[in-house]
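Colleagues,

For the teaching module next term, I've prepared a clean inverse folding example: a structure given as tokens, and then the sequence designed for it. I'd like students to try predicting residues themselves before seeing the answer, so please don't circulate the second half yet.
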């Protein structure tokens, strides 16, 4: 299940045409913390604010690294990851 959750998120990032850009090299990707960037820090701030407005919290990346981070540990259900993927696709469609 964890591999599937990570695969969904990485596929969304990889298929975004560069709108979402992963931090880690493909051979070093985490199945628990998916890190990525958007084209600008302004869009990243908007992404975080909009996600929090629909009750998705904790997507802001580490303070020293920036960007965004989706923590998808064992307790995070597949449905929550699917909701995040849908949010990401909608965000890209309206801003990309």
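(Answer key — instructors only)
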């Amino acid at each position: 299940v964890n591999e599937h959750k990570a695969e969904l998120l990485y596929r969304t990032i990889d298929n975004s045409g560069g709108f979402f850009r992963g931090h880690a090299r493909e051979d070093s990707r985490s199945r628990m913390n998916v890190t990525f960037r958007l084209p600008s820090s302004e869009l990243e701030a908007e992404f975080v604010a909009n996600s929090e407005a629909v009750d998705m919290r904790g997507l802001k990346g580490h303070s020293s690294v920036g960007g965004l981070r989706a923590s998808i540990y064992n307790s995070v259900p597949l449905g929550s990851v699917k909701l995040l993927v849908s949010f990401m696709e909608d965000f890209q469609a309206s801003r990309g």
